[in-house]
Design a protein that fits this description.
- By secondary structure, this protein is an all-alpha fold.
- It has 3 domains: 73 residues, no CATH class; 35 residues, no CATH class; 200 residues, no CATH class.
- A two-stranded antiparallel sheet has the order 1-2.
- A hairpin with a 6-residue loop joins strand 1 and strand 2.
- It has 13 helices and 2 strands.
- Helix 6 packs across helix 7 and helix 9 packs across helix 10.
Length: 317
Amino acid sequence: GQGTNLQDAEWIEWIYQHLDPSNMSNLQREKEATHTAITALYADINPIWLEAAWSMETRKQEEDRQQHEQRVHPLPDRKTVMAMIIRRLGWRLPGSSSTVPIYGLTVRQATQLQDGPALEQRQQLMAAFVQEARGVVGATAHIDPENEVNRFHKTLARLWSDVRWENKNKETLWRLAVDGVPLPGNTHLSRMPPQPCGCGTFGGPNSPPSSPRLHHFWECPIAQAVRDQIDRHLPSSATTEGGMGRHHLWLIQAPPGCDQAPWDVIAMAALSSMEHGRHCLRAAIRGQRQMETMDPRQPPPSPQPQTRVEQGPRQRV
């Protein structure tokens, strides 16, 4: 047939005349004219209709594909799906790159997950304690802090399991290692200014700067008296190297010539004695101040029981 001007033709009539399959024997189409007509017909369709038709076709193809896959690979049941998901669940422990499966988690590992921030803070406090014990606060080039802290962790574990002694005799060391002795000015009481010590050499306006822990467990005359008693009984091999160092006492490391087993008890007893002496001095000063403010005509007050703060660790029940 001849090319048709689609602008002047009725669509229904034109389709019946040129594209109706029942009229195939009577039609003589030109390929170019038919292509042009169909293209014009397509261009005349509303774009929204075209988009809807294509989306429907795409959806139908996707549904057919899913039905085919379900016939070839049927979906697993709920129990199988849950097992597949749970096998891929787990926890990553603090400081470790490996993942613990959900079924393999132990109570100890679960506790580590819950205490993660506290464990990290404890590690930092112990690192500061080791540095202060070594006398290298702020300058860690002379020691390996990580190895020293790990070594001290092993020491604490050994004291816990091997030394058969009441926990009250070990308490001072445990508190001291994490700066947990209640001293104003230490880590967990940093907003409180350091209180003057009853010895008169710490906490005053003219006293040299020092941490509360360093003073009360090394520099205070009470602590020095305990240290002097230990130094008098050290073997000559220890005294020739300058006597007992702070790391020997705080980190429970036996001085040269001393056996480690008895030193475990000696060091913990010394720290506990220093803490007990600090509380006794504080209680004595408080009693003296009360006496000074009393009217001399009044009878002396009856002794007041010591508070828990003023009780030394060896006095507690």
